């Protein structure tokens, strides 16, 4: 299978997926920012990279059209958002329906949006985590593929909590990619995640 990964920053989830050694091809790593640290890693591994800068396009629609065309060149079976910090248009999401996934740093449906770790600490929740989900036009609300939970400890700061969760992200994201590319899990016609495995 062909996998295209979209990043905006350091790309540690992208790295975890690459290093999982899955029997699939990382066809490209694409960033909306030329200074994304993860691009250096991908280049060093010989993975094709591209930058599609949102700043060079006047509207979200224009940016998404160019981005979709760049992704399509690689004929992806799966498009993986890994710290990709742009909200995508409904047209883009529709184009990649059932092939577009994201990882979000909370146990969805709690804490959609930004600053999830600070908000979890402020609320005093005892469990927090991360979620891999299909992307739909409704931000952070797509069908859930996998989740990982961690305890919130008394002295946690957003940074210590984020670090604990990031380790879990690096485990569940490659696992989810493996399930989807391996055909053990998919999005059915009614928009529900289905599996033929133990999960
Ligand atoms: C992760 O915490 C992910 O959950 C969120 O953005 C962060 C990306 O980190 N969507 P990285 O670029 O994969 O290191």
Supply database-style keywords:
199 residues; alpha/beta; Rossmann fold; seven-stranded mixed beta sheet; two-stranded antiparallel sheet; 6 helices; globular; binds 5-O-phosphono-beta-D-ribofuranosylamine
Strand order of the largest sheet: 3-2-1-4-5-6-7
Low-confidence residue ranges:
none
Return the average pLDDT rounded to an integer. Answer: 97
Helix-strand topology string: EHEHEHEHEHEEHEE
Strand content: 15-25%
Number of domains: 1
Tally of DSSP helical segments:
6
| Bound ligands | 5-O-phosphono-beta-D-ribofuranosylamine
CATH class category: Alpha Beta
State Rg: 16 Å
Just name the CATH architecture: 3-Layer(aba) Sandwich
Named CATH topology = Rossmann fold
The CATH homology group name = Formyl transferase, N-terminal domain
Main beta-sheet annotation: 7 strands, mixed
List the helices and strands and how they pair.
Elements: E1 2-7, H1 12-19, E2 25-31, H2 37-44, E3 49-51, H3 60-72, E4 78-81, H4 90-95, E5 100-104, H5 116-123, E6 127-134, E7 144-151, H6 158-181, E8 185-187, E9 193-195
Parallel strand pairs: 1-2, 1-4, 2-3, 4-5
Antiparallel strand pairs: 5-6, 6-7, 8-9
Helix pairs in contact: 1-6, 5-6
The protein binds 5-O-phosphono-beta-D-ribofuranosylamine (GRF).
Residues 7, 9-13, 82-83, 103-105, 130, 166, 169 line the site of 5-O-phosphono-beta-D-ribofuranosylamine.
């Amino acid at each position: 299978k062909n996998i295209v990964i979209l990043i905006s920053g350091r790309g540690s989830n992208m790295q975890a997926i690459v290093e999982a050694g899955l029997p699939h091809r990382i066809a490209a790593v694409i960033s909306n920012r030329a200074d994304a640290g993860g691009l250096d890693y991908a280049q060093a591994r010989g993975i094709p990279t591209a930058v599609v800068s949102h700043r060079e396009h006047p509207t979200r629609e224009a940016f998404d059209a160019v981005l979709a065309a760049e992704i399509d060149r690689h004929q992806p079976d799966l498009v993986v958002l890994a710290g990709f910090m742009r909200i995508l248009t409904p047209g883009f999401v529709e184009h990649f329906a059932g092939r577009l996934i994201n990882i979000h740093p909370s146990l969805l449906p709690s804490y959609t949006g930004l600053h999830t770790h600070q908000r979890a600490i402020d609320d005093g929740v005892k469990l927090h985590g991360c979620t891999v989900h299909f992307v739909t036009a409704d931000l952070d609300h797509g069908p859930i593929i996998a989740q990982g939970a961690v305890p919130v400890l008394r002295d946690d700061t957003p940074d210590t909590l984020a670090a604990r969760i990031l380790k879990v992200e690096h485990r569940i994201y490659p696992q989810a990619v493996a399930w989807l590319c391996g055909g053990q899990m998919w999005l059915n016609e009614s928009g529900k995640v289905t599996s033929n495995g133990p999960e």
